[in-house]
Description:
CATH class of the largest domain: Alpha Beta
Strand content: 15-25%
Amino acid sequence: MSSQLQLFESREATPDWTVRVSRRARRLSVRVYPGGRVEIVVPPGASAATVQRFVGLHREWIEERVTDLSAVAGVTIETRPTQIELPAIHRRYEVQYRPTPSRTTTAAAIGDSVLTLSGAMDDRSIGVALRNWLFDLAEYELARELARIADEGGFSYRRMQVRSQRTRWGSCSATGTISLNVCVLFQPADVMRYLLIHELSHTRHMNHSRRFWALVESLEPDYRRLDRELLSGWQRVPGWMFN
Length: 243
């Protein structure tokens, strides 16, 4: 269970900055969403002074992220897309809505070009159905592409998982688990390939040393440009991913 609190009681108060108290939270954290909305997640019992100190320490980073993600403010308004483009896998889906008395909403693809949603047609249900469908698709497509690139480069890893991180595109654990952000499907194919190469390279170098970047460059000479594109990749993520 969680609750919403106003972040500021002074003239700084703004609807774009909120605090959410979550029973699951063990520490304070901050999320910046496309469109520039800021959410501070805090554990129960955190004082207003503690939250203020946390915001003060991270304000510069938060404001930089807000600047980066404000460019997608118009995109975030769309909650019922008519088309979904996934450049990473070269697909575009036409979305068809079929209201039914069901309380839940399901999404099913017809081939590689049509996606049908059936059931409840409220924004929240639609968002949940779209995200569930995208996760299933990402788990299959990313696993296949990661395995292919690993085979080409002679890499080995323990397993892959798809997540929905708010600030990271991917990670590689010391045990060889590669985590990939589902939203990478909204990126260009060469950007997605670079991300997979980046994380696979961490299976050999768990750092960003010169040897790490030399390995990345040997597999993707244009990695600097692709890395910059990935940093701004949130601008390509539609709003229904965050409803």
